[in-house]
Amino acid sequence: MSGLVVIGASYAGVQVALSARDAGYAEPVTVVGEEKSLPYQRPPLSKDFLLNEVREPQLILRDDAFFKSNRIDLVLGQRAVEIDRQAKQVALAGGARLDFDSLVIATGSRARRILVPGAELDGICYLRSLTDACDLKGRLEQANEIVVVGGGFIGLEVAASAAKLGNKVTVIEAASRLLERAVSTIVSRFLLDAHARAGVDVRLGETVVAMTGHDGRIAEVVLGSGTRLRADLVVVGIGVIANDELASTAGLKCCNGIVVNEHGSTEVPGIYAAGDCANHYNRFADEWIRMESVQHAQDQGRVAGLAIAGSHERYDSVPRFWSDQYDLKLQIVGLSGRSDQVVTRGSVEDGRFSVFHYRQGRLVAADSINRPGDQMVARRLIAAGISPAPEQAGDCSLDIKSLLKADEKTVA
Amino acid sequence: MTWKHICAATELPEGEPVGFKIGDQRIALYKIDDEIFATDDVCSHAFALLSTGFLEGHLVECPLHGAMFDVRDGRCRSGAYKDVRAFKVEIRDREVYVHLDGGPASEDVRDNVTDATP
Ligand SMILES: Cc1cc2nc3c(=O)[nH]c(=O)nc-3n(C[C@H](O)[C@H](O)[C@H](O)COP(=O)(O)OP(=O)(O)OC[C@H]3O[C@@H](n4cnc5c(N)ncnc54)[C@H](O)[C@@H]3O)c2cc1C
Ligand code: FES
After folding, report:
1. pLDDT for A66-104, tens place per residue?
2. Of B61, B78, B82, the CB nearest to A376
3. Cα A119 to Cα A348: distance, rounded to the nearest angstrom
4. Where do the domains of chain B lie?
5. Which of A23, A202, A242, A301 is the most exposed place for a label (fewest CB within 10 A)?
6. Which of A107, A299, A330 to mutate to test the pocket of ligand 1 (most atoms within 8 A of CB)?
């Protein structure tokens, strides 16, 4: 029995299987996942799940019946250990071998470990999986003084959740502002204020050089400046590493992720990759990148699934990301790196605004706080290459949707 | 099992979703090429109203995390989110009626036809 085999049962892997079926793929479809639970939502793990506002069953993407009715075989709690390209087989840790005609690697990424003396102490946590989240939730209930290493999305979300739970929280960020590579300075400052208001102590331009403990348990975090912070729990959120070892060992080209084309295909016919583990050329970024978002995993998974079913569509989605901290809904569309002009729409004081980013007169991205409507329009503008004049984008008296009907001349 | 009067067909703008509240049930109506469709208004994912989303062809996009639903059958285009319910729509004398089947919110409705509030 061959057909389609997918390694990794999360956003990308599930979407591949589903899109292949939607496009009429009739052969067997098997999705292998190392985690035991049904595929689940990762984003709430740092947000509502830690706050007990969402529980495990609500995290499940789709129930068993859904997979059955789509004839998708889930093989859960099993790790794929080898891809044999010649025999067209995937070997599982338990010894089983699965034959495939088409293979998709959707193995995602894992948390980057911190490499400082003391990093092995008990009480130093990472957050990637449901298991990690359950462990962290338990520890948060016991903890009082928490140090979060990394002021990225996960670090800030965990900090917000921990502060809401009443803990004393300090965030250590090496850069001079929060989310430096992802958002405008206006949004960075806004978030810094929001965390300060919630009592979170954010230390910018600081690094962690060591951790010390008592009886094997974390006790102090030592910063580059020499400052020592007491801590009974440390959460490290310093980025992720692509799970591309299975692919590289099988001789597939990898360079910060598995290299794929606009259909999610590797250079080897019949072998695809999608999601956090894949690296592709993105026209909105104008470079090769490895993206880490639910949108990306789903949309790239979709084109891979379609291609496997013989229906080719190019991956051409405008990158999107969201993050929830306190009652703030941060949304980002496009990639703002290298932008040279920004304009704000709405009111920063009221906590409802968007920042539109331009590069050489071209709209490239928008970051919004509590303005989802702007995001939907910005995505369409960026996708269509329409760049409204910055004065228009910033003018709240203009209906944002009217920008979509912008003068033909502004179409790049 | 009730047909509920919602609004006049002419009140619905082409291509723009509109949300209504019927008791504590929320539904979204969509007019596409003069045809009217109805679904749950609350997204199957977290709390966002599809009526504040964007309609493109027969797909409505949730404003929060971008789930896309086909307004004809409520089916979510992505594997990550569950489907929403789609309801039958009838136009009688240019008035829009929606068949709210099985929803818990429709049980407390006494009349066969009730008016909705936008
Ligand atoms: C706490 C947290 C919060 C986040 N918040 C947001 C957010 O707000 N918005 C957003 O857009 N994104 C967010 N993300 C990122 C988003 O979750 C990821 O981009 C997304 O999960 C990527 O999906 P994926 O399918 O590519 O990989 P993953 O979700 O990483 O899944 C890969 C799966 O493959 C399995 N696997 C790996 N190797 C093997 C093997 N050899 N054999 C079998 N199985 C294997 C893994 O166990 C895993 O289940 C968040 C991530 C985390 C951890
Ligand atoms: S609330 Fe609709 S996609 Fe998340």
Report:
1. 999 999 999 999 999 999 999 999 999 999 999 999 999
2. B61
3. 39
4. 3-111
5. A23
6. A107
CATH assignment of B3-111, among 1.20.120.160, 2.102.10.10, 1.10.101.10, 3.40.980.10:
2.102.10.10
pLDDT (0 to 100) of residue A1: 65
Domain assignment of residue A288, yes or no:
yes
> How many CB atoms lie under 10 A from the CB of residue A197?
10
Q: What angle do CA A286, B62, A195 make, to 5 degrees?
A: 75
The whole domain housing A358 covers: 327-411
Checking if the pLDDT of B32 tops 50, the result is yes
Q: Which atom of ligand 2 is nearest to the CA of B66?
A: 3
- The pLDDT confidence band at residue B118, using thresholds 50, 70 and 90, is low
Q: Residue A409: its pLDDT value, please? A: 43
Is A61–B79 a contact, with Cβ atoms under 8 angstroms apart? Answer: yes
User: Count of domains in chain A?
Assistant: 3
Specify if A322 maps to a domain: no
Strands (E), A315-390: 320-325, 328-334, 341-347, 352-359, 362-369
Note the pTM of the prediction, 2 decimals: 0.92
**pLDDT under 70 in chain A at which residues?**
1, 406-412
